[in-house]
Amino acid sequence: MQLRELLGVLRARWRTVAACLLLVVGLTAAVTVTTTPTYTASARVYLTIDRPADTARGDAGGVSVMHYNDLKTLAEVLYSPTVMEPLHAELGLPPGAGVGVSLNISDTASVMDVVGTSSDPQMAAAIANTTGPVLAKVAVQFSPLLSQSAPNATCVSITKAAAPGLPTSPNVRRNLALGMLIGLALGVGLAMVRHAMDTKVRTEADLKVASDRPVLAKIPLEASAVDHPLTIESDPHGAHAESIRRLRTNLMFVDVTTGKHSFVLTSAMPGEGKTTTTINLALAIADAGSRVILVDGDLRNPSVAKALGIEGGVGLTTALLGRASLAEVIQPWGETGLSILAAGEIPPNPSELLGSRPMAELFEKLAADFDFVLIDSPPLVPVIDAVLLQRLTGGLVMVVAAERTRKRDLATALTSLRTVDVAPAGFVLNFVQVDASDSYRYGKYRYQPSQADTNSTPAPRKAPSALGTRASRRQARRAGS
User: Fold this and answer.
1) What is the distance of C-alpha 375 from the center of its chain?
2) Which of 81, 201, 202, 277 has its CA 20 to 30 A from that of 361?
3) Helices marked H in 139-238 — which ranges?
4) Could you give the percent of the chain with pLDDT greater than 70?
5) Which residues contact 244 (CB under 8 A, 6 or more apart)?
6) Torsion angle, alpha carbons of 200, 203, 378, 236, to 10
7) C-alpha to C-alpha distance for 112 and 109, rounded to whole angstroms
8) Distance of CA 319 to CAs 64, 150, 282, 313, Å?
9) How far apart are CA 310 and CA 479, in angstroms?
10) pLDDT over 90 percentage in the chain
11) How confident is the model at residue 443 (pLDDT cuts 50, 70, 90)?
């Protein structure tokens, strides 16, 4: 995974990372606050041995330092009753009370550090300062050589222990820093696991992983579009309508490379918003001055006529069966340049009809009579109809629903296209959460009608512009001749 992809995952899963970070830091802070503080004090000492004179051996006696091996023996028996009982008595503690003490013996010199720990800083210092003299009193009991010469051991202090001002445990700064690091690592790890196990397409990055084809538009999810799906008419200055116009513009660039002025819009599975997107796109292209024909090519579950509230009983299948002429079944949509060819009666063999010669001839006639042809087709995964319709048009556009389309279904749809050597012209990412897309960070920049516009009567729709349409060019050529 590249750094850009990792950052994209973290940006998409930032709530997971933040939740893990806050949870671990909160638990660390709670444990730190409830933990009894521990204070540590250290004293450095060495033990000396008073050797008496031995004239028989010629030993004049004197004072010598206790060696490393004897000090190691004392460290081993530190918690024995022989040491603990007199230590409790010196500290004024009841028998059996816990005493935190340890010895650190130097490897290079016969000195040792006595470390005392306690929840009371004064007691920690007392333990460190008292343990050395107690060990000196009992040292002779653990060394047969010393006991034979009956020496007296003495504790000499190098550095006395002082009561510490701050506890050594818990270390608030260290604990919080470790909590932040652990929480961050846990959050990033969980985000990556969720991303790996995520079965749905959520962002543009997911589409780029599945295909190298461009994303032509990202259409936001708006509550108003549920009740009024034709946003080009109901809310022409809203974010949804603006995204449709962005799709129209990008589709025109794709159309330059094909030159066929026709596209089929499909999706991987039902319920991804392809019909609503196709209708709004047709209205947007018609608003630009082109004569557009919207064909409902879903002969299994037609929905264009129902969405527009027009007659759907006659249409494409009626014309293909020769029961009516093409002109008789095409329905104009208001005063716009948009015309609708509904699906008509549902046939028992939709795939055969869409792949038939009459269908190819009918499409050729539509392409000749209109500036732009859009076909709403069935989903790719259940049936192959969209591939049959793509052969007639200039390209195939896939509508993918964010948070709904499964990656497995998208991969299956793309595989079915690659099998017949078809590449989609591009994708439309539908139902995008507005706050999850940088493309809509200017969502509040919308058209605000003036008072004069509010009080005035809306101007009627203009007739389709003659400039740039193939029909107008044909008229101009006939007039010139």
Assistant:
1) 35
2) 277
3) 144-149, 172-197, 204-210, 224-227, 231-234
4) 85
5) 217, 219, 231, 232, 277, 280, 281, 283, 284
6) 140
7) 8
8) 119, 124, 22, 12
9) 36
10) 61
11) very low
Show Cβ contacts of residue 117 under 8 Å, excluding neighbours closer than 6 positions: 38, 39, 40, 41, 100, 101, 102, 124, 127, 168
User: Residue 344: left (phi > 0), alpha (psi -120 to 50), or beta?
Assistant: left
Return the H-helix or E-strand segment holding 116: strand 112-118
Please report which residue ranges of 216-349 form alpha helices under DSSP H: 224-227, 231-234, 239-258, 274-287, 304-308, 316-320, 326-329
Q: How far apart are CA 193 and CA 174, in angstroms?
A: 28
Q: Which two tokens stand for residue 196?
A: 């790996």
- β-bridge pairing 338-341 and 292-296: parallel
Residues whose CB falls within 8 Å of the CB of residue 254, separated by 6 or more in sequence, listed in order? 216, 263, 395, 425, 426
Separation between Cα atoms, residue 165 and residue 196, nearest integer Å: 50
Confirm if 405 and 292 have CB atoms less than 8 A apart.
Answer: no
Q: Which of 147, 141, 38 is nearest to 98 (CA)?
A: 38
Gap between the Cα atoms of 351 and 385, Å rounded:
6
User: What pLDDT, in 10s, does the model give residues 371-429?
Assistant: 999 999 999 999 999 999 999 998 999 999 999 999 999 999 999 999 999 999 999 99
Tokens encoding 450: 């003036």
| Residue-range domains of the chain with CATH | 3-35+170-197 (no CATH), 39-53+60-159 (3.30.70.1130), 204-445+463-480 (3.40.50.300)
Q: Is the peptide bond before 170 cis (omega within 30 degrees of 0)?
A: yes
Nearest to 295 by CA among 369, 216, 366, 397: 366
Taking every pair of Cα atoms in the chain, the longest distance, rounded to a whole number of angstroms, is 146
pLDDT score, position 48? 86
What are 350's two structure tokens?
């939709």
Sole residue written with tokens 């010393």: 146
Contact of 244 with 430, CB cutoff 8 Å: no
